Amino acid sequence: MPELIDKTLDVVDCINEAGVCSLADIAARCGLPFSTAHRIVSALVARGYLASAKRGQYRLGGRILLAGSRQSLASLIETISRRPLRDLARMTRAHAHLAVLDEDMVTYLVKQSWGRAVVHSQEHMQLEAYCTAIGKVLLANLPPDEIEAYLEAGDFVRLTPFTITDVETIRNHLLETRRCGWATEVEETAPHLMCLAVPIADPKGQVHAAISVSIVTRQPSHAALLDRLPALQETKSGIEAALFP
Amino acid sequence: MPELIDKTLDVVDCINEAGVCSLADIAARCGLPFSTAHRIVSALVARGYLASAKRGQYRLGGRILLAGSRQSLASLIETISRRPLRDLARMTRAHAHLAVLDEDMVTYLVKQSWGRAVVHSQEHMQLEAYCTAIGKVLLANLPPDEIEAYLEAGDFVRLTPFTITDVETIRNHLLETRRCGWATEVEETAPHLMCLAVPIADPKGQVHAAISVSIVTRQPSHAALLDRLPALQETKSGIEAALFP
DNA sequence: CCTTTACTCCCGCGAAGTGGGAATAAGGGG
DNA sequence: CCCCTTATTCCCACTTCGCGGGAGTAAAGG
């Protein structure tokens, strides 16, 4: 790979992380000679990828700030994930889903089916969050105050005999989910249906989506779900690596 | 400026504008040889600045999408504008402001005073939009449905004998403002105070902020305001060029 | 299964980037 | 208001690193 490109992206990454830097900071952080750093920074400023407010203050420029806002990360995650999820569905002999949280509702962006067993989910469908594995993962990774707001505002309907509707129990589930990094759901939304989900996060730990496997069976058991956890984790890693190498 | 950096940014810009491209598209649009385009694209993909969903589909990667969301464009505009506005204030012998719209209120981000005349504005202060020049510019460049929503919801208080409170008149002012690119206000918020404002927009015409000059005088006149329009326009151009070269 | 299309890889030439250092300009503090 | 500090700009010979044509290869879609 061209070295200059790497150096250039090092500079951008560095400023992206640090917020504002002087040229000296940049040179030091990226391990670049002074003049090289200056040359790169000048080129980036000239193109609007960096901006210098005052002396010794470089920051991200308008071009980059605008680029981010035009397209949503969710749409990228969706297209990136489609193939890995199809592989996951085959490998685990289960349905695979990708979803994000939208206005406290789980929004399914990708569904990859497996076998004949029919699951009611569909792409673009919205479901309640408290009773689905994906929903639990997404809720659990919200800021604490938003979790509380959700728990207070929520109207937790009993969809099956196993649906958890008690606020305290849900809160504990969410805490546990956040701690261990995955969530399950066994017949909480529909009979014979169980689910295992993990989050998709960026390198800083911010969660942007979640993926899950869903199994339809006469004999629901946690063990059958957890067998799939390694494969799910691997898919998670693959997607995260594609998004944030 | 290093040529490779320029080519690299050409590629990024190209994908940013086109949304999704194949390698061939990129090479064609940027006028690059195939192998060169491939080398650049690979490097960008390896760093997460581009992502390839499937064959022939490159798009912006997670790194860039995330970079944009972390910092706000408003904060950049604020720091970039401070110096040009100070110069503007000196040159026009007036107070200069930068503001954005936040929840239908004008939010002042930068104030550069001139002379002794005191103006009530302050940085971080919020004012009503319908009766200020900056507010009119910002409102006028909202999507039509949001303008209508503002006009319907608004409670237009008469602050001075000259405040415009009639919805129909305000609507016409906004249309005219959008057409000609600037707005004035003569004693609509306070006695002896008049104002002239223009928008700060990106290359696609999207308005992100507005700047203004404010004059305190015993004899308010449109002419004295419009004398300042060229200087204001020049400052606008300078800021826009710094943001989006 | 086959075809098409996009991607990957290779290699010698030479243009293009490198980087040490000195001059210059621009702020901020006293 | 001036000086001092610190960031920035500029220069130039060296040599590395990227260039780019084309042939091979893998993958998607019919």
Description of the molecule:
2 copies of one chain form a homodimer. Chain A has 245 residues and is an alpha+beta fold. Chain A folds into 2 domains: 3-69, Arc Repressor Mutant, subunit A; 73-243, GAF domain (Beta-Lactamase), CATH 3.30.450.40. Chain A has helices at residues 3-18, 23-30, 34-46, 62-70, 73-92, 133-140, 144-153, 167-180, 222-227, 229-243, and strands at 50-52, 58-60, 95-102, 105-112, 126-128, 183-186, 193-201, 207-216. In chain A, strand 1 (50-52) and strand 2 form a beta hairpin. In chain A, helix 1 packs across helix 2, helix 2 (23-30) crosses helix 3 (34-46) and helix 5 packs antiparallel against helix 10. The two termini of chain A are 15 Å apart. At the A-B interface, helix 1, helix 3, helix 4 and helix 5 of A face helix 1, helix 3, helix 4 and helix 5 of B. Chain B binds a DNA duplex (30 and 30 nucleotides) through helix 3.
